[in-house]
Automatic annotation (TrEMBL):
Cross-referenced Pfam families: Methyltransf_4 (PF02390)
EC number: 2.1.1.33
Metabolic or biological pathway: tRNA modification; N(7)-methylguanine-tRNA biosynthesis
Protein name: tRNA (guanine-N(7)-)-methyltransferase
UniProt superkingdom: Bacteria
Source taxonomy: Bacteria, Bacillati, Actinomycetota, Actinomycetes, Pseudonocardiales
EC category: transferase
Catalytic reaction list: guanosine(46) in tRNA + S-adenosyl-L-methionine = N(7)-methylguanosine(46) in tRNA + S-adenosyl-L-homocysteine
SUPFAM superfamilies: S-adenosyl-L-methionine-dependent methyltransferases
Gene Ontology MF terms in the entry: tRNA (guanine(46)-N7)-methyltransferase activity
Positions of S-adenosyl-L-methionine binding: E66, E91, D118, D141
GO cellular component: tRNA methyltransferase complex
Length: 237
């Protein structure tokens, strides 16, 4: 058994998210009522063991996991642009998932499934090693105060876990508009032996901004406030 086949022993004492209010608009509630039972599941309600993505999607296809889909503005466009992928979005915010289902409905998306809960629990307990084609983490909560940095999602243990779930050649794509967090992401990912930086030869090791990643209102706000966007693309060796 090699390292990627072993269960990664990772237990957190803090989480990288906060629970927000769950009040939904009328449209969001209708979308939830129409689609959640088919498209979504609580992470805590998943059967014990690996999640059978092929059965859930009704087909075998490269699996893409997005951690923290927010209100789904970017996610819906990304899913629509990748019809050949089985796209899974994990998010803790119920109205955000409902809004994503609304967006998916308008775009007639069929290759999207949603999970509500802790992404680390999902990865650790329900995603098989070496099974994902890509993991995307776009603009995670930066927890800017230094005393809160331990709550950031991108830490050595979480990146080790994510890397173990990527298939060889699979991609971990990160993006943030916080300089300090970008530097932490780069340091953590470069220190993970299961990963290599696809753009190690570029200045600073940063990846060029992919044209296919939609620009969100939050990204535009970052530009307006003078914050540079950093992308990082690492590959499972």
């Amino acid at each position: 058994m090699n390292a990627s086949d072993q269960q990664v022993p990772f237990r957190r004492t803090v989480v990288s998210y906060v629970q927000r209010g769950e009040r939904m608009t009328v449209g969001q509630q209708r979308a939830w009522d129409r689609h959640w039972s088919e498209l979504g599941s609580e992470v805590t309600a998943l059967p014990e063991g690996p999640l059978d993505l092929a059965a859930w999607f009704g087909r075998s296809a490269p699996a893409v996991l997005e951690i923290g889909s927010g209100m789904g503005e970017t996610t819906a466009q990304l899913v629509a642009a990748q019809p050949d992928a089985n796209y899974v979005a994990v998010e803790v915010y119920k109205p955000g998932l409902a809004q994503l289902m609304l967006r998916a409905e308008k775009l007639e998306i069929t290759n999207l499934r949603l999970l509500r809960g802790d992404a680390i629990v999902l990865l650790r307990e329900h995603i098989e090693p070496a099974s994902l084609a890509e993991v995307r983490i776009y603009f995670p909560d930066p927890w800017p105060k230094k005393r809160h940095h331990k709550r950031r999602l991108v830490q050595p243990d979480s990146v080790r876990l994510i890397a173990s779930r990527l298939a060889p050649g699979g991609v971990l794509h990160l993006a943030t508009d916080w300089e300090n967090y970008a530097e932490q992401m780069l340091e953590v990912c470069q220190a993970e032996p299961q990963l290599r930086n696809r753009y190690a030869d570029e200045p600073g090791g940063w990846a060029p901004r992919p044209e296919w990643r939609p620009v969100t209102k939050f990204e535009n706000r970052a530009h307006e406030e003078g914050r540079e966007i950093h992308d990082l693309i690492f590959e499972r060796v």
